């Protein structure tokens, strides 16, 4: 019997070098003020906030040819497979008390936006790992030459004074998608 897939059977973390040292130094004191927190490093708090991801799949527009007497035929495009992917990634983050991880994301965005030259991309991590029902890595999708394109806005409201589960999105685009089919190969 085949089990249905579960949307939470993935593993993704930003690499340890994702947050520049000057931002780490700024946010470490915030973590020490949180009572009972066992998280001491800003990257661990940032990764803890990951709630979901949206990674578009491949697609293409068929090439259309008109034949006589007015019939239309569709063909596969001539683009390489790598170019069939949308190359966008959205990571949805839970916002924490005081929105400290949101402001950390804004500072990280500003840092990477200011990079230029030969290496303007965020550091590469392990990628997105898909797990089977027993926790084995089934597929790894590495996103290479990734840049941070946006951080979503906040919805703030004086009429609500309750603690709510709130999220914000961080959007990336990448140049290369390297898929390794794990224990299938």
Written overview of the protein:
- It is a single chain.
- The protein has 185 residues and is α+β, with helices and mostly antiparallel strands.
- The chain has a single domain (10-56, 83-156, 163-184), classed as Pnp Oxidase, Chain A (Roll), CATH 2.30.110.
- The protein has three helices and ten strands, in the order βααββββαβββββ.
- It has helices at 21-32, 42-48, 100-113; strands at residues 10-11, 50-54, 63-67, 71-75, 88-94, 128-131, 137-144, 147-151, 167-173, 176-180.
- The radius of gyration is 21 Å and the shape is elongated.
Task: Compile the SSE list and pairings.
Layout: E1 10-11, H1 21-32, H2 42-48, E2 50-54, E3 63-67, E4 71-75, E5 88-94, H3 100-113, E6 128-131, E7 137-144, E8 147-151, E9 167-173, E10 176-180
The whole-angstrom Rg is 21 Å
Tell me the domain tally. 1
Low-confidence stretches: none
Structural class comes to alpha+beta
Q: Secondary-structure element sequence?
A: EHHEEEEHEEEEE
Count of DSSP E strands?
10
- Name the quaternary structure: single chain
């Amino acid at each position: 019997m085949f089990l249905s897939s579960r949307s939470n059977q993935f593993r993704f973390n930003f690499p340890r070098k994702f947050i520049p040292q000057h931002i780490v130094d700024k946010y470490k004191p915030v973590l020490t003020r949180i009572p009972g927190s066992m998280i001491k490093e800003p990257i661990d708090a940032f990764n803890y906030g990951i709630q979901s991801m949206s990674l578009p799949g491949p697609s293409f527009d068929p090439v259309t040819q008109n034949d006589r007497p007015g019939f239309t035929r569709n063909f596969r495009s001539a683009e390489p497979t790598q170019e069939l992917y949308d190359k966008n990634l959205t990571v949805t983050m839970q916002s924490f008390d005081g929105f400290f991880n949101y402001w950390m994301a804004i500072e990280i965005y500003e840092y990477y936006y200011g990079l230029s030259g030969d290496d303007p991309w965020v550091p590469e991590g392990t990628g997105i790992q898909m797990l089977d029902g027993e926790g084995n890595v089934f597929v790894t999708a590495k996103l290479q030459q990734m840049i941070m394109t946006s951080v979503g806005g906040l919805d703030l409201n004086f009429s609500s004074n309750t603690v709510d589960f709130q999220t914000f999105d961080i959007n990336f685009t990448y140049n290369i998608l390297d898929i390794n089919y794990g224990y299938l190969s």
